[in-house]
Amino acid sequence: MNVEYRMQKDLPCDKLYQLFLAVGWTREDGVTQEMMDNFNIGFIHSTFVFSAWIDDKLVGCVRVLSDLHFRSIIYDLGVLPEYQKKGIGRELVRRCRTACESSEWLVQTDMAKGFYEKMGFKESRDHFLTIPCKWF
Fold it and tell me: Which residue of 1, 11, 16, 107 pairs with 74 in a disulfide if CB–CB is 3.0 to 4.6 A?
């Protein structure tokens, strides 16, 4: 398996949508053309974006919001189910942390808690309040 890792923010909307669909983060019904045309907008406006490709297939990606010094937050780490447990997610997170080594790193997760703990993340007592996104 030859994985090519890229640092590019403008991931193709259709490929990103297919990845989100495969990992269960979006739905097929109710998706408008506006949503499809702008599916990568969060990635474009992120500080860092790393992606994993096999041939022309997007198999994984992650994005980071960071002040480049004190705090960095990982969002949307996703790997196609058939490529999970092959080190792709771990490599994407490693590239994030390398991009801003001195930063405190945050991630909000429940399903992948064990994955992040194996990489050195620890649970904190921070509380997050949210307003849900209209697209997901």
Answer: 107
| DSSP H or E stretch at residue 86 | none
> For residues 74, 129, 122 and 67, what is the CA-based torsion angle, rounded to 10 degrees?
40
pTM confidence score: 0.88
**Which two three-digit tokens encode residue 49?**
């974006």
Give residues with Cβ within 8 angstroms of 2, minimum separation 6.
54
Query: Could you tell me what percentage of the chain is helix, strand and coil, using 3-state DSSP and rounding each to the nearest 5?
Result: 30, 25, 45
For the beta sheet containing 57-66, the strands, ordered from the edge strand earlier in sequence to the opposite edge, are 4-6, 48-54, 57-66, 71-79, 104-107
Q: How far is CA 1 from CA 77, 109, 135, in A?
A: 20, 28, 33
* 96 φ, ψ (degrees, to nearest 5): -60, -50
> Model confidence over 38-63: pLDDT tens digits?
999 999 999 999 999 999 999 999 99
Report whether 71 contacts 104 (CB < 8 A).
yes
